[in-house]
Amino acid sequence: MTTATASGRRRGPDFELLRGVPVFEGLPPSALEDLLAAMERRVFRKGDLVFTQGEKVERLYVLEHGRVEVFKSDITGKRLTLWFAKAGDAFCLGNLFSESAFANALARQDSVALGIGREDLFRALRKEAGLIHRFVACISRRLAAYAEIVETLAFRSVQQRLAAFLWRCVSLDCTKEMTCTVTRSEMASLLGTRREVVSRALRRLGTAGIIELVPSGKARHAKVLDPDRLEAVARGDLSL
């Protein structure tokens, strides 16, 4: 539904989307309208790169719908997924304040995003003091998440990392029997390892009766059977 404001501007789904983004939450309607007026809609097809590591990033994006993977990669092609942006997420926050992007962003699905240029955004930051505080808070949370990734890679085995990943999924499912549909290649990227290593770790969990590998087309998905023992593996209290 679209409504008109006293200024004559019309508010619709884009306004509601922006109002729900944490970095813009709490801004007065007039400030949100100014931001929207400076934004352009961008369409990314599945497999399109939004930006690449080392490239200068000129825009902040708010994902309207779709899914975007933010990941690091090296010259051998090995990759580490940092996070997945979903509808309502803002991404490129930190990149706007550096000389170049520290990671890549890839559309995992057909995606649509609202983008605002660096100068337009900086103008809004100078005008709205509250926006600066929200930017700092959001960037700080993202840095904390990256620090957790580094800690996990440094101090946990692949088996523990995989168990922790599956257990986090289970913790969001009220039935405690969740079937994980993430592919093994995606798991490997998320866990900072190779696909074959993930396959061996999944088989060990299956042999122990903690998960069941359920056929689904050409793939097999992991259904969690024993979340308590899965959590114990993630903590390092149970070895397989």
Describe this structure in words.
This is Crp/Fnr family transcriptional regulator. It holds the Pfam family HTH_Crp_2. Residues 23-142 form the Cyclic nucleotide-binding domain. One of its GO terms (cellular component) is cytosol. A 4-stranded antiparallel β-sheet has the order 3-10-5-8. The chain has a 4-stranded antiparallel β-sheet with strand order 4-9-6-7. It has helices at residues 13-19, 29-37, 118-127, 129-155, 158-171, 184-191, 195-207, 227-235, and strands spanning 3-4, 10-11, 39-44, 49-51, 59-65, 67-73, 79-86, 90-91, 104-107, 111-117, 179-180, 211-216, 219-224. It starts with a strand and ends in a 5-residue tail after the last helix. By secondary structure, the protein is of the alpha+beta class. Helix 1 (13-19) packs across helix 2 (29-37) and helix 3 packs across helix 4 (129-155). 40% of the residues lie in helices and 26% in strands. Strand 12 (211-216) and strand 13 form a beta hairpin.
List keywords for this structure.
2 domains; DNA-binding transcription factor activity; alpha+beta; single chain; 8 helices; elongated; Arc Repressor Mutant, subunit A; DNA binding; 4-stranded antiparallel beta sheet; Jelly Rolls; 240 residues
Describe the SSE topology.
Elements: E1 3-4, E2 10-11, H1 13-19, H2 29-37, E3 39-44, E4 49-51, E5 59-65, E6 67-73, E7 79-86, E8 90-91, E9 104-107, E10 111-117, H3 118-127, H4 129-155, H5 158-171, E11 179-180, H6 184-191, H7 195-207, E12 211-216, E13 219-224, H8 227-235
Antiparallel strand pairs: 1-2, 3-10, 4-9, 5-8, 5-10, 6-7, 6-9, 11-13, 12-13
Helix pairs in contact: 1-2, 3-4, 5-7, 5-8, 6-7
Keywords: DNA-binding, Transcription, Transcription regulation
Organism: Dissulfurirhabdus thermomarina
Domain Cyclic nucleotide-binding: 23-142
